[in-house]
Amino acid sequence: IDANPGSLVQALISLGEMATATQSLSDDTLMLLGSELNFAVEVVSPEDEDRELLESFHLEFGEDEGGEEALEQRPPVVTVMGHVDHGKTRLLDAVRHTNQVAREAGGITQHIGAYQIQAEFDGVERAITFIDTPGHEAFTAMRARGAKVTDIAVLVVAADDGVKPQTIEALNHAQAADVPIVVAVNKIDKEGADPQKVRGQLTEYGLVAEEFGGDTMFVDVSAKAEIGIPELLEAVVLTADASLDLRANPEQDAQGVAIEAHLDKGRGPVATVLVQRGTLKHGESIVIGEAHGRVRAMLDENGNPVDEALPSRPVQVLGLTAVPDAGDTFLVVSEDRIARQIANIRQARERNAELAARRGRRTLEDILQGLEKGETGTLNLIIKGDVSGSVEALEDALLKLDVGDEVDLRVIHRGVGAITQNDVNLATVDSAIIIGFNVRTAERVAELAEREGVDIRYHSIIYAAIDEVEQALKGLLKPIYEEAALGSAEIREVFRSSKAGNIAGALVRSGTIRRNSKARVIRDGVVVADNLTIDSLKR
Asked: What value does the CA radius of gyration of the chain take, rounded to a whole number of Å?
């Protein structure tokens, strides 16, 4: 715009905005400045900005290369949704158990956020990929980033309980994502089960069963007794074949989306990715969101190493520089240098966006004074969790809280891993509350938080965290019950006993360890076991 930075600062001051020449500004402030200087300001969405970034490196995300002849059939990707108590998790377990390949591999299927099964239909072996993510993650955060992950939704409804509000919410998410729905009527072996009633209830929401003249497939199942699982898988395959054209080019450079990610003590950042097109291979350079690296290893859902992953295949990827967010898109690039440059530019943009968003945030005292004057109050939050999917799901749920116009909620930072000194420093500056979901503070960080007066709330249940924040926004927080640490010990070795089970050989690091007191096990700041009781102590 050919303007002197000093004159821009003066214009901002005249508008009541204090800023320096090198400071990031919020979108609202830029619009105000443009209006003052008679410039048209166009705010570009993060998606468009990222598309332009990739184009500058002659890259494009989301398109299959080549013509029709280059496309090959790929397996359907399925997300199981429904009410929390209607057996969604049990159904996923039942599907795993029917998979002969996983059974032969011997061992427990690891939770990597997604898995693929093999099933036979009409004498042909077919693969189906299932995504196992918190709630509606596959439809909200991932879809918002432009990565349509799911092809088919399986809606689980209990035959003895019927349609619930959470069922309707799941249904709305699936319909908004424009994916076909297969209904699994679960718990048909329970007393009081009425599958026909469920069919009637869902008719009101546009899901009409085939036997009623509609086009939605309903399958009666019992996840507990493993009844109807083959029929459910067949319904998924039939729906995919009838309604969808599931094809991708396996020969191009791989692209896809991160389903889940976490920080592993021994292996570093680990991301579960779903390949959407192309073939991901060992040793390739990859960029996922703000993380980049070289594919050092790939593991399937059974923990077995794989050399390549075809379209619709979920794998764990090792070798990244940082933990990406669930829903971040990934793509393979020709060399490490390009991956690093793209990741660095994204990191810089994210930092600038956070700095701009933090401008103008008020202190807690300002909020209280504003509330007394009838103004809007703001509650700033920092969310830390054990895996990125949980963090994103919690943030998404919190931002949807309806607490009227008098209070406003802002998540100023979120991340994976233990609560660090940087988190506390940020909370100090912005008068934020830190929510730890299945994580604790890193070493000596708790003392810093206490010294700085930073409020840290720990939770292991997502609904409890949401409820507490909602109460805080409404000014109805119940009295805080403070947890007093008696002592800490480091586990040096674990002994096995046929009578007592596992026995921890531990060295007391601080305080006192008492018999019958409560304890938790923490590894790298992440809670791995909670609400334990110390049954006995021996020297």
From this structure: 26
